[in-house]
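May I ask you to comment on the folded chain given beneath this request?
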Amino acid sequence: MAKKKQVNLPSSTAGLVRYFDDYKETIQIKPEHVIIGISIVIVLEILMKKMLII
């Protein structure tokens, strides 16, 4: 009978680092604040265009 060879393969996660475990954001912005900010910019842009056309 033939002998089975044991093959040592490299680990599948070799070299990968999980940074999100140690990372904490210093500035936290809620999605609602982003939507409100974008809405304000859009309204200001529309108002500025109307003032220049008149």
Helices lie at 31-53.
